[in-house]
TrEMBL record, chains A, B:
It comes from the Bacteria. SUPFAM superfamilies: FAD-binding/transporter-associated domain-like, FAD-linked oxidases, C-terminal domain. Belongs to the FAD-binding oxidoreductase/transferase type 4 family. The lineage of its organism: Bacteria, Pseudomonadati, Pseudomonadota, Alphaproteobacteria, Rhodobacterales. Keywords: FAD, Flavoprotein. This is FAD/FMN-containing dehydrogenase. PROSITE patterns: FAD_PCMH. Residues 40-221 form the FAD-binding PCMH-type domain. Coiled coil: none annotated.
């Protein structure tokens, strides 16, 4: 879909400032135009920073009237360029940083109502004050904001138990592309009063509407936690272990992360100060966490279930954290893997999901496939095995720079994505499409789904002013 | 939105039969034109019964070409007239009864792929064969079919733990109003590859697209279950009890149903053969169920948590089921309440949800409010307290017939709905809008949400052939 947009010029920025107040409109400092991986560099005539929903609507109406593109800006932590527009008519950035109020916390309802600009860590803290948790947990929680987390339907390590961002939200308040405000901060779990609008705008990456606030679900902060390393010979054994643990421990498994020997080696090489798990038989490690209420006896139950798995030949060895500090050290290994990856320097990174039953075959196939492109390529494959969501990253041979691999980078990426598609998976599992995967979406999506997507875009943003060029070209 | 539709005449029915085969087109027997509460009586030129997705698409294309309305027909158990079109140009019914194959069951992925016409009880059985459950559980499970359950985003007694129907579905295959097939039977939990189409069509009651198949989530069948009656003095105490149990028992609480003394009296009066729970202090009963894996020790833990609640003065008395037969007897009380209600004969029934924190005040306000309309009115209020979803039904005074109340029936309904709206709740919690609540939706919905809904309808069914008159007038 091609839309004709106009560049935001000085006169337009002045009109925005007049309408919203001078505090609300600022020059676009460089930090708004960069992104974590440094692949995209943005442009913007100004940063618009409304502090109310009505001000967001006023800004959007002005942009719609002038046909000026809006790039919604949340925490800026996205990895697929959704927050960065590099070319085309000059847009404005619309940042939610001043809409950062927690409007309400209700323990009986289990609802925290947050504005789009609230930082995830602040939402965690507010939930903690009433002995609850908001389960969305990911590496960028100190910077990521609620609006962006919902717009991208963020994932993280607790999806296995609590679901994706969309599952943790009961309602949204949002502004449509013509400035219409949709007020839908529902506080009830069951509401079939007409079509579900929140699920349309959640995950649309700011291209169908702008989320200004959300009612978020809180869960009890559970008294008992048990965390363990388990070693397994293969991803297939890791999956079998997960099946056993789910049967044995009910719904209490709250994390199940896969880590490879390669990942631990990268960590040892680049971040030697991180305490490694002890040597264990088997090429793969699983970090498993279980939570329950008091008397749930999770430590003993996890230990018994893991002992059964050793007995069954499924697990090589296990280590159960004996104290909070040790638990934190286990998690630090997992959390530092992406940093080690950045230090090594990936040729190509992939945020993929595969139906779990096909993951072992995928891993067994993808390695040799990339080896055929270049025998030195090293793979670090890790992540949220329970969701079928792995970060599948290709790295240079030891001692080589990734520059040497620039000629095969596109081939590596294409080969991985083609294989994911062949295996019935997704090449945009938890990070979204942004601008990085627009062509992948065109290539891999079902034609009927693409048709449905185009109709949604036409229905909600006929002028194409919302995040131009993201998701759909 | 007014659409011009044509009546399906004999010639059109003949063309359908020619295109789909004679087996696929039948006269509309009376059973297709009735609904459980007897309020609506339908009309249809024929029942079209395609047995493949392609045949559904062919039928839809023919209807679109002739501008003939399609009433999707699933199990016929809906309570809001969504499956019944009484007036306007003669439509065809499109029944999914021949699309009743379970296409695939995969234990590792935790996915069962079912066609729209599969009966819920058959899906339960297929899940049971691999020691899994599909958690959607409701009274009509012997007749309700997957397509209708998803189209109405059905609820039931396990929403508190497992979510609504939409939360139990990872993907759909669907036919749009122009015959476009959307193939989206995803098997992965994390997939942000573009807009989420399944959530658009789920809950749209057949007005935005026709679901032909779905990938459904399976969960482990847990080894331990504990079920108890607890008596409380008030709904507020019931909510406080739920908060305690959730904190104490982690995520294992799988049902929490509220029943009033009035409900038990109706049951005693109309179904004396049903074994009642023992007399207990307090006007309200809660039926609570907890499930966990082996070693979860759920019976002891539930008993301890309930003992604490008695100690705290929150609970009058408790009775924990000692065997499966007793558990079944407990549940039979809950399941027979709607049948007792039918035997008494309601003046007006309401499927409402209220933010739990406001439920006690709602119940305290609504009773006297209806009493002011007629002092003899009896209230039976029961249901899924943990979700804030109650069935709030008004009945005649003892010995009176509901005919006498016909003059105030509309006032009762309006007063209850106005109060629900004032309390921030929904007047269509788990049964949907259908045709019964079209005016309520217009009256209570946020104008921005209604605008968004109209855009969705225009985008996906511009001719208005899909379930004409349902959801949106």
């Amino acid at each position: 879909m091609t839309h004709h947009l106009n560049a935001a010029d000085e006169g337009f920025v002045a009109r925005l400032a007049e309408a919203l107040g001078p505090d609300a409109v600022r020059p676009a400092e460089p930090r708004y135009l960069e992104e974590p991986r440094g692949r995209y560099h943005g442009q913007a005539a100004a940063v618009v920073r409304p502090d109310t929903t009505e001000a967001v609507a006023a800004a959007v109406r002005l942009c719609a009237g002038a046909r000026v593109g809006i790039v919604p800006y949340s925490g800026g932590t996205g990895l697929v360029g959704g927050q960065i527009l590099s070319n085309g008519p000059m847009p404005v950035l619309l940042s939610f940083e001043r809409m950062n109020r927690i409007r309400d916390v209700n323990v009986i309802d289990g609802i925290l109502t947050a504005e789009a600009g609230c930082i995830l860590a602040d939402v965690h803290a507010a939930a903690g004050e009433v002995a609850r948790i908001f389960p969305l947990t990911l590496a960028s929680e100190g910077s990521a904001r609620i609006g962006g987390l919902l717009a991208t339907n963020a994932g993280g390590v607790h999806v296995i138990r609590y679901g994706n961002a969309r599952d943790l939200c009961l309602g949204v308040e949002a502004v449509l592309a013509d400035g219409t405000i949709v007020r839908g901060l529902s506080r009830v779990v069951k509401d079939n009063m007409g079509y579900n609008f929140r699920h349309v705008v959640i995950g649309s990456e700011g291209t169908l509407g702008l989320i200004t606030a959300a009612s978020l679900r809180l869960y009890p902060r559970l008294a008992e936690t048990a965390t363990a390393w388990a070693s397994v010979a293969s991803p297939a054994d890791a999956l079998a272990l997960l099946g056993r643990l789910r049967g044995a421990l009910g719904g209490t498994v709250s994390a199940f992360e896969l880590i490879s020997t390669q990942g631990l080696e990268f960590l040892a090489e680049t971040l030697p100060q991180v305490t490694q798990p002890p040597a264990m038989p088997g090429d793969w490690r699983v970090l498993v966490e279980v939570d329950d209420g008091p008397g749930g006896n999770v430590g003993d139950r996890l230990e018994a279930a893991l002992a059964d798995a050793i007995e069954a030949g499924l697990v090589g060895d296990v280590l159960i954290a004996q104290a909070d500090a040790q638990r934190a050290a286990f998690w630090r290994v997992r959390e530092m893997i992406p940093e080690a990856n950045r230090a090594i320097g990936a040729i190509s990174s992939h945020d993929i999901s595969i139906p779990p039953s096909r993951l072992p075959e995928f891993i067994a196939t993808a390695g040799p496939m990339l080896g055929a492109l270049d025998p030195g390529v090293r793979i670090n494959c890790f992540g949220h095995l329970g969701d079928g969501n792995l970060h599948y990253n290709a790295f240079p041979a030891r001692g080589e720079s990734r520059d040497r691999y620039e000629p095969i980078r596109a081939s590596v990426s294409r080969a991985v994505h083609d294989l994911v598609h062949e295996f019935g998976g997704s090449v945009a599992a938890e990070h979204g499409v942004g601008r990085l995967k627009v062509a992948d979406l065109e290539r891999y999506a079902d034609p009927g789904k693409l048709e449905a997507m185009r109709r949604l875009k036409q229905a909600f943003d006929p002028l194409g002013i919302l995040n131009p060029g993201a998701v759909l070209a």
